[in-house]
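Example record used in the benchmark description.
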Amino acid sequence: MDLNTFIVSVFCLIDDRIEDRAFRARGPLPKLSDTEVLTIEIVGEFLGLDTDEGIFRYFRRHYGEWFPALGEVHRTTFARQAANLWKIKERLWQELLALAVHDPAFAICDSMPLPACLFARAYRSALASKGKRPSARIRCSGEPSTASGCTLGSAGLG
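Model output (structure tokens):
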């Protein structure tokens, strides 16, 4: 699926899911519709654009004709509107999650080593003197691992 088709698909999916909900009780309507903002944000995150500024600039530059009101709003207005839609995003996520086939008793457990302590002042310590690099003095609280599956029962949560 090319990007244009993906954008249209995401827009239609969101528009079908939120068309019957009233979000604003008072105040002026925004120039960008909520569906447009959610579509831009979701597709931008899918493309790996991590900041609201990056998402805004990308869509304004490359898809300005698809979202003409994007040229009329300031980036902070776009970001504020996207942030205020957090509850709608949560509901939409829960609805889509309910449609996905998954085992609720299965979860992904991912781990990575975390620096537990740094021997910065213990110059004479046997542990601190093993390496010449400062990073060699960092002791981690675990071993590196890849993502692995576990059940909630095996993780002590079930």
